[in-house]
């Protein structure tokens, strides 16, 4: 577990386990970029190019005060052009949280390598299953989780991975006693959370993971690392840079 960008002097981090992934904090543009030369199968609910897609650039953008939430996808496409990222090979997440406090956790597992990144703001924490005021526009908060898998997974298993990460996020918020203050109950997330799963589908691995629930090796690892990353990102959100 690490939060490399809380150190003001660090702008680039390379995983010891997965050095092919470059993790970069672009301070002047207000985003964290995770990039690779390889193209990944991706499933997400990201505001920019969400759904099922292919990508090798993954951006978590801390939106400015001038942010217009009426069309987040178009706004982010414009930013991708300005940043010089190929808009059709990039996925864009948005947040109002301190992305310098993004937490990374990694593990070498059973026919896979795994890296999980989480950024977290809980100002719009909410408990699912309760009636509340709702809006049609997208307003970022938010807890963003990115899961990178070097291995092979079916699309069904990728959905399962999103479930495992979401359950882990809710467990972390429960243990941290993060409240939905509108109902005075422990929150299960925020109103604008995003989860992204990116899989290399590398031929280095023979088996294809068919499932990613808590009782599978890969699902258990995703749950544990998502829990650790969300817990740390939430716990330190109000702490200063180092």
UniProtKB/TrEMBL annotation:
Q: Record keywords: Lipid biosynthesis included?
A: no
Query: Which top-level group of life is the source organism from?
Result: Bacteria
Q: Which InterPro entries match?
A: AdoCbi_amidolase, CbiZ
Q: What is the name of this protein? A: Adenosylcobinamide amidohydrolase
Q: Name one Pfam family in it.
A: CbiZ
Q: Which UniProt keywords apply?
A: Hydrolase
UniProt GO molecular function: hydrolase activity
